[in-house]
DNA sequence: CTGAAAGCGCTTACAG
DNA sequence: CTGAAAGCGCTTACAG
């Protein structure tokens, strides 16, 4: 159904239909009613107007979740960044398009083609594992892009990295200042890039603090979830030797490990074993005890991404690479700083 | 910058530029290079093609969060529905547009105008408080809509409701079967519609079970968050009289209340006081003890919404109203069913 | 109040 | 391999 066919059905000219659609005042009430009636009957929705093509402003920002996995709105890192990103872009007058990557996997469609088709003005690209070729094409294209935890090299791309080197050092420093010297690590499976980076950073920081690494206190689960943390910690308990403090590669691993240490070894947290998690998910606030964790400033990352993208779109910025510091959120799973320093 | 100007800059015809853009094969490598070069330099992005207008398929679904608040990706009800909705729509070949309502508040723009402009094929509308006029206009329009917890009356609209009557009855039934007779409620502020519905449902269910309502065991916080639960429970402790079981209007209220009962009254959960929350947020699994809660089947709602919307778009369905049952997720905050039944 | 006509930015058979 | 020309669905001054 197009405007031409519809105008014939309504017995008026194309111009008149167009005016009804756009709410022009100079149309008689009778004509307006009739045209609207016919539009209703045929469920007619006008195609994208040339007007918008002319202004060349779609008001649309693309959201790309790079990698094989699909966007998961439940993922707290993702959704907290999107919260501030979306409200900031909203204030600037943009709506957000979330690309479905189910489609890209089947047909040969590319992100760039989608962006052009929809006249997307800029994209935010969130990093996952196994970034597709289509993302690189987008990076190299004229479409302004912001990468989150993803290095982008294109002429119209900038990126934001979280400072994972600095963050792990803080964990070891915190343990060290509280008097803990026997440190262990519980991570996801060894194939996970994020877990490996965190583990390597932890080992490096331990070495620079002159602490001895005991391999039996380094354990790995299947994934980042609670059950993996439980099993890894339980295995450590069964091996008969426990460190005084554990850094976990995710908060859920920390929660699972805590459950195992309590249940399988009767440990008190933090008196017998201290724990630090990573990610700062909500649940850490409500466990007993609440868990100290490494947090990324997701609200800041989202807001920064919005500002940088807007500047890129309006050519007010050179491409750039920004690093956002992480923070150690101190709760109760390592004991009081003051109390322990007395040791 | 349009295709005409660009073709002049590149010294070729409009047709040739168009072919380069669309990756046609019959262009010499040299010409292709030059055109791409010029496109890069001028950051040219083609406007929406007429081709897409012709096919009349944008492949776009609109997401509207009705009401004054903005979409909050951290909200677990919202984001878990969107998870399944998005992946289902993705399989069907659609991308999602999240409308920013910051904009609607300022300018006179309407959702319908945005939908038309972008040729949105259908919308999902998530209910909030104070639904705007613009949402009703969209409901009444030819754009197919699915309302979530929002009754839609339009000729091309269906909706999905969660069964809040049934859900509260289950709470009282569960308490009753475990032998608890002295029941209390902790809710959000009295102005909150959701909290009021839950409270009224709870009172009704208590009456139908012949239980006496004691007003001193009905308390209210400022909002749905943990601190409000803590304060409301603490106030109850200070008044000197506690029920044997508490239903909280949200999980965070339940978590806060639990903290207060433990800390301010030395209560054990569930031995001294049993608790049921509402919403089934992740944190409930990791508290001590894990909290029994009323869950909506969010995955099912999301998938249903996607299927119903797709059917509506393809005219394969009458408009309809579907109710999804809620479920009581039994964990440890009310004690073992078997143990208590012995009472 | 209505509509014929010129225009928007783009695509696509078709001729060379 | 390239481009002139007809076409897409729509908007908008302008004449009546």
TrEMBL record, chains A, B:
Residues 1-55 form the HTH lacI-type domain. GO terms for molecular function: DNA-binding transcription factor activity; transcription cis-regulatory region binding. It comes from the Bacteria. PROSITE patterns: HTH_LACI_2. InterPro entries: HTH_LacI (IPR000843), LacI/GalR-like_sensor (IPR046335), Lambda_DNA-bd_dom_sf (IPR010982), Peripla_BP_I (IPR028082). It holds the Pfam family Peripla_BP_3. Keywords: DNA-binding, Transcription, Transcription regulation. This is LacI family transcriptional regulator. It comes from Cohnella abietis.
């Amino acid at each position: 159904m197009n405007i031409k066919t519809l105008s014939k059905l309504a017995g008026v000219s194309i111009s008149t239909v167009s005016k009804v659609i756009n709410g022009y005042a100079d149309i008689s009430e009778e004509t307006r009613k009739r045209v609207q009636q016919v539009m209703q009957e045929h469920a007619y929705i006008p195609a994208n107007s040339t007007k918008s093509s002319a202004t060349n402003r779609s008001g649309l920002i693309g959201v790309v979740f790079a990698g094989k996995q699909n966007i998961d709105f439940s993922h707290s890192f993702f959704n907290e960044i999107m919260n501030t990103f979306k409200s900031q872009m909203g204030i600037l007058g943009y709506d957000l398009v979330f690309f479905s990557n189910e489609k890209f996997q089947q047909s040969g469609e590319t992100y760039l083609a989608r962006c052009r088709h929809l006249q997307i003005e800029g994209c935010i690209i969130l990093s996952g594992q196994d970034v597709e070729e289509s993302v690189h094409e987008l990076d190299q294209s004229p479409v302004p892009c912001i990468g989150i935890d993803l290095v982008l090299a294109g002429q119209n791309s900038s990126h934001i990295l979280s400072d994972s080197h600095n963050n792990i050092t803080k964990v070891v420093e915190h343990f060290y200042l509280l008097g803990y010297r026997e440190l262990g690590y519980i991570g996801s499976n060894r194939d996970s890039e994020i877990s490996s980076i965190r583990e390597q950073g932890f080992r490096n920081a331990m070495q620079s603090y002159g602490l001895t690494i005991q391999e039996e206190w380094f354990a790995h689960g299947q994934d980042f979830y609670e059950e993996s943390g439980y099993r890894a910690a339980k295995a450590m308990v069964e091996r008969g030797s426990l460190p005084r403090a554990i850094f976990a590669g995710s908060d859920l691993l920390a929660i699972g490990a805590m459950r195992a240490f309590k249940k399988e070894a009767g440990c008190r947290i933090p008196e017998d074993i201290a724990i630090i998690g990573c990610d700062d998910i909500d649940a850490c606030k409500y466990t007993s005890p609440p868990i100290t964790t490494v947090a990324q400033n997701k609200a800041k990352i989202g807001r920064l991404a919005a500002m940088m993208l807007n500047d890129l779109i309006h050519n007010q910025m050179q491409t750039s690479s920004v690093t956002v510091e992480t923070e150690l959120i101190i709760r109760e799973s390592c004991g009081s700083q003051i109390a322990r320093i007395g040791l």
